[in-house]
Specification:
The structure holds two protein chains of two kinds. Chain A is built from 13 helices and no strands. By secondary structure, chain A is an all-alpha fold. Chain A has two domains: 185 residues, no CATH class; 51 residues, no CATH class. By secondary structure, chain B is mainly α. Chain B folds into two domains: 44 residues, no CATH class; 63 residues, no CATH class. Chain B is 76% helix and 0% strand. The longest helix of chain B is centred in the N-terminal third of the chain and has 25 residues. Chain B is extended and about 50 Å long. The chains are: A mainly alpha, B mainly alpha.
Chain lengths: 238, 108
């Protein structure tokens, strides 16, 4: 490919990806600012915010990390904490095995940057025709991380100055997940998997509480998917 | 913690997070077809997982005392109905947030 054509393909992919990421733009800036404000409020240097946004890049873990950094040095505890908070990523990876197959040089970054929000966008979007698939996925992922790092940095630098009351605006993430749920719902007439997911998660939340419900919910979902496999595969075929 | 210890802790958190994201791809690389059950999970999991994420967003809402999760549930209902009706992403999301912020700040 001529360098010019290559540039055009890249710009096309970026342009195509941009509109899909707008909800994440709003959500990540708001949450990122909240994170930066909390981090510097605990007395940490502002530049730790972009460093964490770049290298950890996991929203809920970064909030937990502020507490970890403020307590005694214990790397093993930090490691276990990160695994527990982020264990749900395993499901995202399994779901993306097929989609990320043969994504070539983009693949390492696509895997590294698979957050809740990026996962749910990549689940639901299909690249427009004449847009290169791998670059389209890459830009969705990279734009999302750029918003997150920007938000974290703004919060850390702007601190209390930017700390307007943003409570409620984080509903943008909830709204995004609901929209994706609705679109999945309309894709198929067979709703057993999503209903199982919702009710098992609610059940687990009621039993184990907000701090500990994810792991049992994942175990429950896995068992249910195994148990009803015959029925589910039949449902998807029809 | 010293600055060095802080950076080590961040590195550990980064590596553990990367591990949770990379593990499925390490176990089932491109050139190896995953076992049938894993392929099945790859197809079916996006559905229950999005359901789980929605529940995850509501995990800290208290339904047993005022305002009984009314702003959150009303926001949920708004997004579901407006999206099914218009299929317009900005209207569903920006409208949903505005509706939720209004309810949670002004009404309740």
């Amino acid at each position: 490919m001529k360098p010019e054509a290559k540039n055009n393909a890249t710009i096309n992919a970026l342009k195509a990806a941009l509109p899909y990421t707008f909800p994440v733009l709003v959500g990540y800036i708001v949450l990122g600012i909240a994170f930066g404000v909390i981090l510097t409020g605990r007395g940490f240097a502002w530049w730790l915010a972009p460093v964490m946004g770049l290298f950890i890049y996991a929203g809920s873990l970064q909030f937990v990390a502020v507490e970890l950094l403020a307590s005694a040095f214990n790397p093993l505890n930090a490691f276990i904490m990160a695994l527990t908070v982020n264990i749900r990523h395993l499901f995202y990876g399994i779901s993306m095995l097929e989609k990320f197959r043969d994504t070539g040089k983009e693949k390492p970054y696509l895997v590294f940057s698979l957050t809740d929000e990026t996962f749910s966008l990549l689940c639901s979007v299909t690249p427009p025709e004449n847009v290169e698939r791998n670059r389209f996925y890459f830009f969705i992922s990279a734009l999302n991380q750029a918003y997150w790092v920007l938000g974290c940095t703004l919060g850390a630098i702007g601190g209390s100055f930017l700390n307007q009351d943003t409570s409620g605006f984080d509903f943008v993430m909830t709204a995004l997940f609901i929209v994706i749920l609705v679109e999945q719902w309309e894709q198929t007439h067979f709703h057993l998997p999503v209903l199982l997911g919702i009710f098992i998660s609610i059940g687990s939340l009621l039993i184990f509480g907000p701090q500990n419900f994810i792991v049992p919910a994942m175990a429950g979902i896995l068992s249910a998917m195994a148990l009803f496999r015959g029925k589910i595969e039949e449902g998807f075929r029809s | 913690m010293t600055q060095r210890q802080i950076l080590i802790t961040i590195l550990v958190l980064s590596l553990a997070t990367i591990l949770t994201r990379v593990l499925p791809f390490l176990l089932f690389p491109d050139h190896k077809r995953p076992p049938e059950f894993i392929q099945y999970l790859g197809k079916v999991l996006p559905f229950p997982v999005i359901g789980m994420l929605v529940v995850y967003c509501f995990r800290n809402v208290t339904f047993t005392s005022s305002p009984f999760g009314v702003p959150e549930l009303a926001g949920l209902v708004y997004v579901v109905f407006v999206h099914r009706w218009k299929h317009n992403l900005p209207l569903s999301i920006v409208g949903g947030v505005a509706f939720y912020v209004f309810l949670s700040r002004v009404v309740f």
